[in-house]
Amino acid sequence: IKSGEVDYIFGSRSAIFTPCSNLKQIIIYDEHDGAYKDERSPYFDTLTVAQKISQLTKTQIKIVDPSPKITTFLQLPKNIKIQKFPNSTHIVNMEKERLSGNRSLVSFDLEEEIREILENKGEILLFLNKKKESGHFFCKSCKNSEFLQKQPDICPSCKSPDIFWNVLNITTLASEVIKLFPKTQVNLITDNNRLTTNDLPAGKAGKGLTQIDIGTAFSLYAQLVKKYDLIAHIQTDSLINLADFSSGEKLFAQITSLKKLLKTSGKLILQTYKNENPAIELSTQNNYPSFFQAELSQRKSLNYPPFGLLVKLTLRGKNHEKIQKEASAVYGKLLSNINHEPLALSPSNGSTMNLPAGKAGHQPLTILGPYQSIFWQKYPSYHIILKYRLVSYSLINRQEAVSDINNLISNLPKGWLAEVEPNSIQ
Fold first, then answer.
1. pLDDT tens across 123-147, in order?
2. What is the pTM of this model?
3. Which of 44, 116, 216, 278 has the fewest CB atoms within 10 Å, i.e. the most exposed one?
4. What pairing do the DSSP bridges indicate for beta strands 262-272 and 308-316?
């Protein structure tokens, strides 16, 4: 490569640092994927590095992505090729299924489609973005639907005791599918290995000629040698129920990625309680421009990217009480380091403030937290979010914002991790 005798370079995210003396173009495929952001030191973001290279060398950036990140499309709309997958998509209203008496994980529509595909010896994938733990909660009164670690006695939202609780993961889904289709072999596709019905708690199923694959998010990355006639997203709401500004963006990308696994004549079924959600509705129409505008409108009111830059501070530890206390102490120190009076204090323990004179653009900074992550890990973790309002999402404005924030957090105690532009605030 250094000799200049190579015309094309193919690589993963670290390839962005390849020393090219006469680089003409950087092409990034599926840039929305979180894997382009390194979660280990030096914690680089591939697109940010590419933009800096382009700034220094005038190298052209090209992105091929069916569902670009909102921030990426805002910055580089003319550099992005949006792929479209015009497969047939059907939305199943799971609330109507429950009202009709169907308590199964498999809707009536999906069951009928599976039987038809099996009769024709077709390929089927049931997608569930959940391997283990927790359960699915649904309130019959306020229609609140979410995943919780433990079964509650009442609805966390409306306090109604009229609730439905179901432990759902790929193993329980496989058990139910085996009951519905006893002569069909079921395969579990996970990041660990591929299991068959003989490995499942439900026992041995009859060895038929047809198969049903059940996969997690690993299915989107696994080197599968086949494409499917039918794919069903069993719990489409699993992402949009997360309290995260990027949940809609991630759901749009996930649905689009599932379309990639379909044959040209294949069909995608989305089972949901929120069939009018923009991410679900617009992804079925391959209407990214409208989704982009809807997301921009929502994010603008709260100064989320691209209207602000986020830095997530994280502390993990074995002693829950100790890290909670330290997180509160660091939050207090951050406020005092600003050296001025807060402009506002929100009930969610967040303060908005002005940066001292001379700082880039005199932009206000919001500090949110501390709060515990909703994702269950071996050890608890607490986060603090720094939200820096931007005039524009240009590379230079973000660099100035990072510089300001770095001055503020330069004396963080040992053990804290600072992540610029996190993929998630959880």
1. 999 999 765 556 778 888 998 887 7
2. 0.82
3. 116
4. unpaired
